[in-house]
Structure formats: structure tokens, C-alpha cells
Design brief:
This protein has 268 residues and is an alpha/beta fold. It is built from twelve helices and five strands. The structure holds iron/sulfur cluster (SF4).
Length: 268
């Protein structure tokens, strides 16, 4: 008898994995939906997932790591995760996902779109076969937006206040302007992120989310002003170059600004 193959789709709270979940709802009846919860996700993500769950008519299983972020931060000696040392994705996202998967064969559905060529930070466990339905079916950003609109779910709500990706509120992949927006929208989350930083005269004992710019400095009014001015200039430059572009092309361009380094399991 052939071995049973499980179908698993991991949602991040981002638009692409959400659209993929909606897209697959009537295509794979035994799909298992999961969400790897770091416990430090954007507030909107939890509400958004509840909405998606209602639409799917099926539970989105919340997977947690063994111990919260603060525990692991201690284990890593206060060393904040960074693009070079991304222990957070490994411990808080990939490990719980792989534990859930176990050792039997699994098809993992990933929402990489037809109009992007990111490679991505995915599990390479031998029993997992990763497939990309949007790539296979030629669905790009416009298609994703259509799926979200048609379902009534809409785009992820954090986009409204200018955060570009799902994932943790303190994610080191966010731009300085997004830190400013976090401070303005959810000051308590900014405070918490700041409390994880360690400043010292000894560079080896200094841990900040942005290299060379502690959040205590980023939040100073003059620094905020400078970040906003720089961001505005950048916008103006982009606007000039995009005169004849369609909205969907503009969105894709904005998204691409820091997409190349983002991780699929957190931010797709
Ligand atoms: S969203 Fe960012 S901080 Fe959170 S686990 Fe992913 S890479 Fe790490």
C-alpha cells in the first residue's frame, strides 16, 4: 500500500501565503494549515489569521517553539538575531514546523509568486517536497490581490500603517522608517523591542537591532525627522521613475526593495 502523503501549508500572516491558502481551499481537501507563532508577531496578524480561519472553515494550527523568544535570547547569550545570525527563524519557525511534519512524506505548499525569483529560507528536510502553486499556475501579485479581494479577506491590515511585511514586530529586516511607524503605532511594542537591546562600551557586548543605531537613538525626534526626510526623498525618486507604471507594478517594486533577504516562512 502506498504511503500516505500529508499536504501542509504554512501561513505567515502575509498576503502571499494567505492568498495561497484561499486558493488551495477547494483544491486540496485534506490540507493542514499551520502558523508558526513566535509569540512576538504583529498584533494584526493574529486577528487576520482568525478571519482566514473562518473563511477556510478549518483550523489553522498554531505551532510554538519550546520556550518564548526571551528564553531563547538568554540561551543565545543576549545575542539578538540578525541577517547574519538568524537563529530566530530556525528556532521559532522552522523547528516547530519540522517537528509538526515528523518523518513521513509531506508536500509543503509555498506561496512564492510567478513574478518573483526569491529563493527563500525553507525547510530542507528530506521527507518534504516543496511545491509552488502560484509559480506553476502563473499567478503574480495582481492575481494574489484579486484572490484576497474576491474572498473579502483583503490585504493584511498592517500594510495600512506602513509596515511592509508580516513576522515579528521587531524583525531586523524592517526599514528604519518602519521602526518609526512601529513607535508611532504601537509604542509598547517598540519599548519591548528596545528592552531586548544591550548597550555597552565593549562592542562585543553591544546588541542592537540595527547595527550602529540603537532604538534609544532612533526614537529621538531629530533622528525621526531625518529618517522621514530621507524616506520622502527616496519616494520622490521612485515616483519619477514610475510615471507610466500600473499600481500593481508600483507595489511589486516597493515590495522588492528589501525582499531579497526576507525569509519565506516568516514573511511570505
Ligand atoms: S520575522 Fe524576522 S525576527 Fe521574526 S523569526 Fe522571522 S526573521 Fe526572525
Amino acid at each position: 500500500m502506498a504511503e500516505e502523503i500529508r499536504n501542509i501549508l504554512s501561513l505567515s500572516g502575509g498576503k502571499d501565503s494567505t492568498a495561497l491558502a484561499l486558493y488551495m481551499r477547494d483544491r486540496v481537501s485534506d490540507m493542514e494549515y499551520v502558523f508558526c507563532d513566535t509569540g512576538e508577531e504583529l498584533r494584526e496578524t493574529y486577528r487576520y489569521l482568525d478571519q482566514v480561519e473562518a473563511y477556510l472553515g478549518k483550523e489553522i494550527i498554531r505551532l510554538n517553539a519550546k520556550g518564548p523568544f526571551e528564553h531563547w535570547l538568554k540561551v543565545y547569550g543576549g545575542y539578538l538575531p540578525s541577517p547574519q545570525m538568524r537563529w530566530c527563524t530556525k528556532i521559532l519557525k522552522l523547528k516547530p514546523f519540522e517537528a509538526f511534519i515528523g518523518e513521513k512524506p509531506v508536500i509543503s505548499y509555498v506561496g512564492l509568486r510567478a513574478d518573483e525569483d526569491r529563493i527563500g529560507y525553507i525547510s530542507h528536510k528530506k521527507n518534504i517536497t516543496t511545491i509552488y502553486p502560484f509559480k506553476d499556475d502563473g499567478i503574480g501579485l495582481a492575481g494574489v490581490m484579486r484572490i484576497l479581494e474576491k474572498s473579502g479577506i483583503g490585504m493584511p491590515p498592517y500594510l495600512e500603517w506602513g509596515r511592509s511585511h508580516s513576522g515579528c514586530y521587531f524583525c531586523f529586516f524592517q526599514k528604519k522608517i518602519e521602526w518609526v511607524r512601529l513607535l508611532e503605532k504601537y509604542p509598547e511594542d517598540f519599548e519591548k523591542a528596545q528592552s531586548y537591546e544591550k548597550l555597552s562600551d565593549d562592542a562585543g557586548k553591544t546588541f542592537t537591532w540595527i547595527q550602529g543605531l540603537p532604538l534609544s537613538k532612533l526614537r529621538m525626534p531629530e533622528k525621526i525627522k531625518q529618517i522621514k526626510v530621507e524616506y520622502q526623498k527616496q519616494r520622490e525618486r521612485l515616483k519619477k521613475n514610475r510615471k507610466n507604471k500600473k499600481l500593481v507594478e508600483v507595489l511589486a517594486e516597493m515590495e522588492g526593495e528589501n525582499e531579497s533577504i526576507a525569509c519565506l516562512i516568516c514573511q511570505l
